[in-house]
Amino acid sequence: MKKVRAQARRDIPSEEKLKAFAEEHLAYEIIMLQFAKQELSQVNHCQFKKSAFLECFTIHLRALIDFLWKQTDMRKDDAIASDFFTSATLWEKIRPEMPLDLEPARSRTNKEIAHLTYARMDVTSETKGWNFKKMTKAVLRVIKLFVDNADRPQIGKLGELLDRAFEE
After folding, report:
1. Running along the chain, 168 residues long, what does each successive block of 10 average in pLDDT?
2. 61 close to 105: Cβ distance less than 8 angstroms
3. What pLDDT does residue 5 have?
């Protein structure tokens, strides 16, 4: 029988902690996703480097998906996008549904990358590929919506940090 974890009561961090989190940890996830996508676009990497960059890409993508859309099975200390809004329901109102390009990303990361599962044996050469360019574009579009609408003091300089990172 599968255990069901009770939803823990969540205490949203202070504005100062949210700002520090956005500027350091959220920015890191986004920058690493972009870096991994750029490296996966290179054709001269050996298979081990391709695999390492794919693992990097999928883990950071899954973290961002959970941040933007995860609403069930949350732990007490999970960071979620709605924490950065004065009204917790505002993000749910303006956030789009998860784009189709991202639908398989979370489950595939779990089954093929983050956990040793027998489901890996069912992955064929036809289903093995990841459309990392489309996936990055889809998640960054929603990150931009988040940055444009979140409470400014709580995201700090996240928008500026991302603008500079993507200029380089």
Report:
1. 56 93 96 95 91 94 94 85 91 93 87 86 84 92 94 89 71
2. yes
3. 47
Nearest to 165 by CA among 44, 56, 30, 68: 30
| pTM of the complete model | 0.87
Asked if 120 and 111 touch (Cβ cutoff 8 Å), the reply is: yes
Dihedral angle, C-alpha 157, 100, 116, 126, nearest 10 °: -130
The CB-side HSE value for 75 (13 A sphere, CA atoms) comes to: 5
Task: Calculate the alpha carbon distances from 61 to 11, 22, 27, 70, 165 in Å.
Answer: 25, 16, 13, 13, 17
- 102 touches 138 (CB < 8 A): yes
